[in-house]
């Protein structure tokens, strides 16, 4: 089996999160199939010649790099596999981006990926901020390669204008103007930097050989994580867990094994174990605190003071990644900072809508859509919530993650959010269908007795089936303490001319803070 060490792509990768397991996406599967020769094809003469020109000009042997064409990855990728430096190119995708016959387009892209190898970027994982710096270093190298191959400075602008870029410096890749500036700097300073970069290359490769064994352990853990996420097979879970624990026991890769192991337990819908792993991290940072917050919140447990202090001091603009910013928005919502939550959610939605959704990790999209739709329901923006929660449901239905426990749990939760939104927007036909589809899932008795039963009663009430609604609300209230259900039961009694029973329910609801019930009590009841 071949092990992928660290992937560097020319464009925005599939995962936005700063510290989540970006290697465990659809992109990893596509890369795996290519590097194992299942989907690779022979590279064109122009790419092969381009690689030869570059390595010859900078004094390296072409045997330093292996190039494969992979027409499924929609990217250009630098990666180390079993100690070999690979360049993986989706030639079809690149040809669609290239608006000219100028060979500089392919030369720049190949040089950029070679630059990742020469700068040692493929030797270790990095956060978004570091990744952006590394992308600029690779662009710098590509700029000086174009100069040595007699390209023009205008070629740099032409190439980079044809490549997708983010609008803000918050993800793994820099914005367009930064890339053009640094590549032009490399072009202008070509002779000064060449020996420095090549020397760094030799130093980093020596380091890579020393670290090969521990890197393979991390990649084994990640590969098995991915297989568990896809299949739900607990053998893959246990094997991945053991490799992560080995890395933790050997104090390798800092906090990365802790965070990824905590995600593994979350995939198994085991928030308690996820919390235990995260609590082992020394000096937790903002990202650790956010992950802990989400776990504690799911378990409906109070947040430890140390974690609450970190959360309350977070500067929102310092947090990167779709998953982490979504959790931060939820934290703001639950602590009364609604406007801050709204600002983050709206910003993330804009970024997603302006991006190619195929290049965003599906799991992170599901996580965002499900949480954003819940937020919209709290703001009574039900029509938009219908659209957003439907996006989450559709993604889950078409994803490869249905076999893992956490996504299955989110699936049920999304039906709840979707149904609430349909109720709020008075779309009772779709609500009836949603409840039918929701009931087909493997619901626990508690799930049936809580949200599902309440929404069924509300649908019966709103569609005039008040006698059925009375029975449903009565059953629901036998199992749950919910003054809003008392209020709606009172309304159903009123429709059926049972004033005394109605007033009793209004009185309970009013005493427990339902203001509308107090108004009904005053208008409809003598006392």
What order do the helices and strands come in, and which of them pair?
Layout: E1 4-9, H1 26-35, H2 45-57, E2 66-69, E3 76-81, E4 84-89, H3 91-97, H4 104-118, H5 128-148, H6 153-161, H7 176-188, H8 190-231, H9 234-249, H10 256-267, H11 271-278, H12 286-298, H13 305-312, H14 322-334, H15 338-353, H16 362-378, H17 382-398, H18 405-424, H19 428-439, H20 445-462, H21 466-479, H22 483-495, H23 499-511, H24 515-524
Helix pairs in contact: 2-4, 4-5, 5-7, 5-8, 6-7, 8-9, 8-10, 9-10, 10-11, 11-12, 12-13, 12-14, 14-15, 14-16, 16-17, 16-18, 17-18, 18-19, 18-20, 19-20, 20-21, 21-22, 22-23, 23-24
Structure overview:
The chain is mainly α. It is 66% helix and 4% strand. It has helices at residues 26-35, 45-57, 91-97, 104-118, 128-148, 153-161, 176-188, 190-231, 234-249, 256-267, 271-278, 286-298, 305-312, 322-334, 338-353, 362-378, 382-398, 405-424, 428-439, 445-462, 466-479, 483-495, 499-511, 515-524; strands at 4-9, 66-69, 76-81, 84-89. The protein has a 4-stranded mixed β-sheet with strand order 1-3-4-2. Helix 4 (104-118) packs across helix 5 and helix 8 (190-231) packs across helix 9 (234-249). The chain is elongated. The model is unreliable at 1-29 (pLDDT under 50).
